[in-house]
Amino acid sequence: MLPEFQWVPVSGNVNTQPVGVAKVGSLGGRFNVYRDTRTEAQYEAGFGGNFQGSAYPAPASAYTRTTRLEYALLGYKGPEFYDTGIIYCPYIPVMVQRTIGPNDFAPRVGLLTRYGVVDN
Asked: What's the Cα-to-Cα distance from 4 to each of 1, 7, 62, 106, rounded to whole Å?
């Protein structure tokens, strides 16, 4: 498929134990490796995984994944801010609006943010 692509062995020290978004090692001393345990690929019982119990409208077998989900998200952090591919630009960080619920008169809090996403 890609004739110029070749597998090359790279020394690495990847530790898969940390949880959350954490640095787990490096590849070849050049690339930092991070792991996000909140993604669907990191745990089988996540979104679209194997759900148990009768609280779901469909039987548990309907939520069982038939194929293993494997993917990698690659990113590049250059020395300057303009080396990035996508820029997140919040221009109203967070607005908080307090109100009262019309049905039960319970206090409610609404959060609003506005932002732009620009590809570089």
From this structure: 9, 10, 42, 63
Q: How many CA atoms lie within 13 A of 106 on its CB side?
A: 5
Q: Which residues contact 4 (CB under 8 A, 6 or more apart)?
A: none
Structure tokens at 68: 């293993």
Residue 63 has pLDDT above 60, yes or no: no
What stretches of the chain adopt beta strand conformation (E)?
21-27, 31-36, 86-100, 107-119
Judged by phi (left if over 0) then psi (alpha if -120 to 50, else beta), residue 53 lies in left
Dist CA 72 CA 25 (whole Å): 15
User: Of the candidates 27, 35, 23, which has an alpha carbon nearest to the alpha carbon of residue 11?
Assistant: 27
pLDDT at 56 over 60: no
**pTM for the structure as a whole:** 0.38
Residue 48 CA from chain centroid, whole number: 15
Task: Collapse the DSSP code of 99 into the 3-class scheme (helix H, G, I; strand E, B; otherwise coil) and give the result.
Answer: strand
List, in order, residues 6 or more apart from 120 with CB less than 8 Å away: 82, 84, 85, 86, 87
